[in-house]
Amino acid sequence: MKKLIIEAPSGLDPKYKLWAREAAGEMLSLFPEYKSSFQIEFDELCRHGQTEIDQAAFDRLPDDEFKRKFVRLSNGKYLVPYASEAWYLAQSSAENRANGIDAADMEKYGKLKAEGMLHRKSQDIVVSLLGSDIQPAFYGYGIEGLNAVISTPNCNDKEFFITIFMHEFGHILNATHERRPHTKDDPALGVHCTNDKCIMGESNYHDLTRERLERKRKNRPPFCDECIAAMREKLENMPGLTKAVAVSHANALPVLPHNDDNWKNGWRTHYRAVAARDKFTYHEDVKNPNFVAEITRNDGSKLNIEANNEYNLSLGAQTADGKDDIPAIKDFADVVAKATADNSVIEFASIRDDEFKARLLIACLEASPRMKTNKAPNITPAFLKNIDPKTKARLQKALTGNRQHGNGNTPQPRPNRPPHRPGSGNRRYTPGRQSGGRS
Ligand SMILES: [Zn+2]
Ligand SMILES: [Zn+2]
Ligand SMILES: [Zn+2]
């Protein structure tokens, strides 16, 4: 699980929180494979443990880098570094105040917040909404892998705000990293995308907002494919996230925003190979905006496949005489193989039939190594009563079969426990180069 924390000062107009939630939702909907991994939370601006100490306590501190970060108040007390909003504002506005300007420096503020997150070993993503004055004037500042700051005083339009939010979130997800083409590095603004009408462009937010809304009307995402691919690359390596292929049952899937049809290639290659392997007939409805294909088996029965992005699949089946059927365990094994190749787990999405769930679960349990699952059904007596006796026998065998490999005394395996991501123990906080971007 990964928390996306939206920090806002208590006095801030509540509309910004609503807009931020909407923007975060729109942003995360671009990556449905992580839908179950993200949790959006609201918080007041930072407060962590003791926020102030007195002179005597200050004098006892070892003379080091950390001690030099304390801020002395007019009442003789000291603000503890990274512990309160007061400290962040005091630190980030110190230079401005020395020059007679009463405002925070957003870039400094954002970097201090990032330092604070590293200091606390935070694994969250934090977006801070600021109500105070900013100098020099910027709308937002985002730091790879960690956080972003958005200034609200000059931002009274909802769509304008959402554009800033998504753009800065794009910086958090490293959309414009140095290993991809079509970017432009400006020493003052950071690295931005040069692809036409992409929200990661460096033009002003009014233009970016107009272009984002124009793309939305055409059901296109606000980012170009290169930015989306770069963000996926970042998400793939973020601790706390589990990528999942969501499987549902004969569900008419809504059409999602896409820049083009390239996202279909993975499904097409996979299902063409499946049909060729079994010497069945593959047919695709190429005109459909979703990926829609059917595989006709030699006995005349069919497997119906629909996907509305790379990770969202709906399966159905038909008997030779056209009646609704449930896909075979073998069909689910093919889905599991694809998910394994994509480094994903299987998520049980919208599925009415327990028989469908049971067959999908068997395919997960029988895979070697066993496929991890999200939202798998609990195997209760009521569930077992709803499924075919042959399926039931195979499910029970699959469950016990796996148990033999473990400790003989372990309780019945719980297929719905949260999946463990190999390698997620090595937390990587800082990228090689901390790239920020502001506009
Ligand atoms: Zn905090
Ligand atoms: Zn782009
Ligand atoms: Zn930017």
Averaging pLDDT over every residue, what do you get? 89
**Which CATH class of the largest domain is shown?**
Alpha Beta
Report the structural category: alpha/beta
Radius of gyration, CA atoms, in whole angstroms = 26 Å
Please provide a written account of the structure:
This protein is α/β, with parallel strands linked by helices and 439 residues long. It has 2 domains: 2-48 and 84-236, Collagenase (Catalytic Domain) (3-Layer(aba) Sandwich); 244-403, no CATH class. Helices cover 34% and strands 19% of the residues. The protein contains 12 helices and 19 strands. It has helices at residues 15-28, 55-60, 85-98, 106-119, 158-172, 205-217, 225-236, 265-278, 329-341, 354-366, 381-385, 389-403, and strands at residues 2-8, 38-44, 52-53, 71-72, 78-79, 125-130, 140-143, 147-151, 183-186, 190-193, 244-249, 281-284, 291-296, 302-309, 312-318, 324-325, 345-348, 373-374, 436-438. The strands form 4 sheets. Strands 11, 12, 13, 14, 15, 16, 17 and 18 form an 8-stranded mixed sheet that branches. The chain is elongated and about 85 Å long. Mean pLDDT is 89; it is low at 404-435. One zinc ion (ZN) is lined by residues 167, 171, 190, 192, 437-439.
The gist of it:
This protein has about 450 residues and is of the alpha/beta class. The protein is built from twelve helices and 19 strands. The strands form four sheets. Strands 11, 12, 13, 14, 15, 16, 17 and 18 form an eight-stranded mixed sheet that branches.
Keywords for this structure?
439 residues; alpha/beta; Collagenase (Catalytic Domain); 2 domains; eight-stranded mixed beta sheet; six-stranded mixed beta sheet; 12 helices; 34% helix; elongated; binds zinc ion
